[in-house]
Amino acid sequence: MAEKLLFLTGKLAEPSLHKVLNEMAPLPFEYRVHQLGLSVAALMTDKMIARRLTPEIIHDCDQIIVPGRCRGDLDALSEQLNVEVIRGPEEVKDLPLFFGRERKAPDLSRYDVNIFAEIVDAPERTVESIVERAQYYSDCGANVIDIGCLPEEKFPHMEEAITALHESGFKVSVDSSNIDDLRRAGKAGADYLLSLTEKTYHLAEEVDSVPILVP
């Protein structure tokens, strides 16, 4: 007969606990989840558990799994309840590891933010080198390549670099404190312009690039 486990948790962690346990199926044990009546599971203590667990709640369980940050003497609690009480992992997501399983890898293919990676020395690089660096950043997870301009350093091949990056499939931003650089970038088709201020934000009316403002 499969063991029967009772998982104790708080209001905030309860949905995550159910989700992780469902993803671990099939399991070699039966289980129930009991929300102990507090918001944060990490604030659970042995005395709180002893007060709030009634015989009706624990009558059919072989083990009680409490949150990893639960404070108190669990050996004494086990004797008091006449059921073995075990401290689980500190994070719900680590339950598979706790039970000897591999943790499910998170799906990083879907997200709703743009990840910018800046090529800080772009003016000193060739166009080919800029594209190579962009590919490296893309492999690391970036989906917008930021061309960083250097103060008082000319960047005659900026337009060519923007075109080459677009042809390679990248979104492009250009970061400069020089309004002439930003204007050139906008006219060359940069997707974003960094970092506009109260003195340069009017540039957004001249080009189609998305402006990113800094205070």
Question: What does it look like?
Answer:
With 215 residues, this protein is α/β, with parallel strands linked by helices. The protein has two domains: 3-98, Rossmann fold (3-Layer(aba) Sandwich); 116-213, Enolase-like C-terminal domain (TIM Barrel, Alpha-Beta Barrel), CATH 3.20.20. It is built from eight helices and nine strands. The protein has helices at residues 14-23, 46-52, 55-58, 74-81, 95-98, 127-139, 158-167, 179-187; strands at residues 3-9, 29-35, 63-66, 84-87, 116-119, 144-148, 171-175, 192-196, 210-213. The strands form two sheets. A five-stranded parallel sheet has the order 5-6-7-8-9, with helices on one face. The longest helix has 13 residues, at 127-139. The relative contact order is 0.09. The model has no long low-confidence stretch (mean pLDDT 92).
